[in-house]
């Protein structure tokens, strides 16, 4: 029988421990060391200062399974969720790190040994990309590993398109970065999509499982590259993606962990079709929302809290779609199923269970009062404007019905429609005026209200406090 996701996580940590790596726990989703970053979006985030040479650790090799959220900032996959087999808002990134210790040769050899030796993946299903000028990486893959040249694809920079995929990895607009080599798994010709570098590379046939970054530079605000004190290695492999491969399924949503969540969502919403896209989105969003709350974020109208609010409301809208909106709330009922599958690796889910449930319940109670009417109003606008929504209407849907514009855009996308160009910019202008009025009146954006003993659980675990003050999280709960 196939390995469970939990076993795969342990395998990874154990493999690199046996190669002299120190096992380092996941850091929180709210980065403590980096005001430029909305959420922890990669395993390397907690090691940023070590790469930069500004911080020393007692080890030069580390391994972790890092919780990540990509729902804002440079890496934003919120709009992919429900549309690809491989993207989540929350996921776990398995990573091994070298701080001036080993470099390309060992990193590649370790990756290959784990994938094809320990896990026994068929070599002919794997292919790799390298940075277009990285002849050294080509040589290692070709001569030392023995990968045929036609399965080593050279990929260049993204030529100025900051969000396109490329083989030069950056955490954010500034900071540690470098060329990378990525390992892809071919899920088979029955799935649409071309190999990396081809015009239809965005399909889900060849799925990127593991990125090995050769950290060599510190990107400056003016765009220039300063060399790091020592060349480092930073790798990231999506736990859910490798679990799909090892469990012989195509989509991340078919792995054991997600199936448990999807079945729970199906029961809660009384949905027979386990393939229903809304179930996948609800399962995905359950993880992001629960872990963001664990890490000190609460739904609010600003900063991180607003990202959380938007994800919660997207999930609630899918409950509504499935006819499962209720005053007592349903989304919070997903917390126990999540604890079933992730509480072992993340005991903080169990410790903060009541906080998570109460915060989700409060948000659902608030939103369920207006969502229905908001959807009716949206339909009215669409009829009135021949299927177009303008900035003022986006503002009304948000202001009166609590429907953020990305939620509206997502609904339009399901109908095969787009927001007209300029609508978002107009909306922003309306919002700005609104904020000024609120500031003048001394009012803050409405957050969820929770009892004091639960608020106490939000107390900073070392470094959360500063960030939460900034994003308005404290005001709204006080
Ligand atoms: P993709 O091209 O598929 O969007 P990426 O190139 O953006 O992935 P990296 O930044 O290289 O991803 O992150 C390292 C690894 O983390 C990826 O190889 C993948 O296995 C995993 N990963 C990245 N984004 C996600 C996501 N949204 N959901 C699940 N796993 C992800
Ligand atoms: Mg991506
Ligand atoms: Mg990629
Ligand atoms: Mg990548």
Automatic annotation (TrEMBL):
The GO molecular function terms of this record are: ligase activity
Give the cofactor binding note. Answer: Binds 1 zinc ion per subunit.
Record lineage: Bacteria, Pseudomonadati, Pseudomonadota, Gammaproteobacteria, Lysobacterales
Reactions the enzyme catalyzes: tRNA(Ala) + L-alanine + ATP = L-alanyl-tRNA(Ala) + AMP + diphosphate
Family indicated by similarity? Belongs to the class-II aminoacyl-tRNA synthetase family.
Q: Which residues of the full protein are shown?
A: 12 to 489 of 894
UniProt comment concerning the protein's domains? Consists of three domains; the N-terminal catalytic domain, the editing domain and the C-terminal C-Ala domain. The editing domain removes incorrectly charged amino acids, while the C-Ala domain, along with tRNA(Ala), serves as a bridge to cooperatively bring together the editing and aminoacylation centers thus stimulating deacylation of misacylated tRNAs.
Q: Is the Mitochondrion keyword given for this protein? A: no
EC class (word): ligase
Q: Could you identify this protein by its name?
A: Alanine--tRNA ligase
Whether Ligase counts among this entry's keywords is yes
Please name the source species. Answer: Lysobacter hankyongensis
* Record-annotated membrane-spanning stretches: none
Q: Where in the cell is it found?
A: Cytoplasm
List, for all copies, the residue spans of the domain called Alanyl-transfer RNA synthetases family profile.
3-478
State which Enzyme Commission number(s) the record gives. Answer: 6.1.1.7
Coarse class of the primary localization is cytoplasm
Question: Which keywords does this Swiss-Prot/TrEMBL entry list?
Answer: Aminoacyl-tRNA synthetase, ATP-binding, Coiled coil, Cytoplasm, Ligase, Metal-binding, Nucleotide-binding, Protein biosynthesis, RNA-binding, tRNA-binding, Zinc
The protein's required cofactors:
Zn(2+)
What this protein is reported to do is described as: Catalyzes the attachment of alanine to tRNA(Ala) in a two-step reaction: alanine is first activated by ATP to form Ala-AMP and then transferred to the acceptor end of tRNA(Ala). Also edits incorrectly charged Ser-tRNA(Ala) and Gly-tRNA(Ala) via its editing domain.
């Amino acid at each position: 029988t196939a390995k469970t996701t939990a076993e795969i996580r342990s395998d990874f940590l154990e493999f690199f421990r046996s190669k002299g790596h120190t096992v380092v726990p996941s850091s929180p989703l709210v980065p403590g060391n980096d005001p430029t970053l909305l959420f922890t979006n990669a395993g390397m985030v907690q090691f940023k200062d070590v790469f930069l040479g500004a911080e020393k650790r007692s080890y030069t090799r580390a391994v972790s399974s890092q919780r990540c959220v990509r729902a804002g900032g440079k890496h934003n996959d919120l709009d992919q969720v429900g549309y690809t087999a491989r993207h989540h808002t929350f996921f776990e990134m398995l990573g091994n790190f070298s701080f001036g210790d080993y470099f390309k040769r060992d990193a590649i050899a370790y990756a290959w040994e784990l994938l094809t030796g320990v896990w026994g993946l068929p070599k002919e299903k794997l292919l790799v990309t390298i940075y277009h000028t990285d002849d050294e990486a080509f040589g290692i893959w070709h001569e030392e590993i023995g990968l045929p040249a036609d399965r080593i694809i050279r990929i260049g920079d993204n030529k100025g398109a900051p969000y396109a995929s490329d083989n030069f990895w950056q955490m954010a607009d500034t900071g540690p970065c470098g060329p990378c080599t990525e390992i892809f798994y071919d899920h088979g010709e029955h799935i649409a999509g071309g190999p990396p570098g081809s015009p239809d590379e965005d399909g889900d046939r060849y799925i990127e499982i593991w990125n090995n970054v050769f950290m060599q530079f510190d990107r400056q605000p003016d765009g220039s590259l300063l060399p790091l004190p020592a060349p480092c290695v930073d790798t990231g492999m999506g736990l859910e993606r490798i679990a799909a491969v090892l469990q012989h399924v195509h989509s991340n949503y078919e792995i054991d962990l997600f199936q448990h969540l999807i079945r729970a969502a199906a029961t809660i919403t009384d949905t027979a079709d386990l393939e229903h896209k809304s179930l996948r989105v609800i399962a995905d969003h359950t993880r992001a929302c629960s872990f963001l709350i664990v890490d000190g974020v609460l739904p609010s109208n600003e900063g991180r809290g607003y990202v959380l609010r938007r994800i919660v409301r997207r999930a609630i809208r899918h409950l509504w779609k499935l006819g499962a909106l209720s005053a007592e709330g349903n989304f919070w009922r997903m917390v126990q199923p999540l604890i079933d599958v992730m509480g072992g690796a993340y005991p903080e889910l169990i410790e903060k269970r009541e906080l998570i449930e109460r915060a989700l319940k409060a948000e659902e109670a608030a939103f369920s009062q207006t969502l229905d009417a908001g959807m009716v109003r949206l339909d009215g606008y669409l009829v009135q404007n021949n299927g177009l929504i303008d900035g003022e209407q986006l503002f009304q849907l948000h202001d009166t019905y609590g429907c953020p514009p990305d939620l509206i855009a997502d609904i339009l996308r399901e109908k095969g429609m787009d927001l007209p160009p300029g609508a978002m910019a107009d909306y922003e202008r309306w919002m700005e005026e609104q904020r000024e009025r609120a500031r003048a009146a001394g009012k803050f954006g409405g957050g969820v209200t929770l009892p004091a003993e639960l608020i106490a659980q939000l107390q900073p675990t070392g470094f959360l406090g500063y960030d939460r003050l900034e994003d308005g999280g404290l005001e709204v709960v006080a």
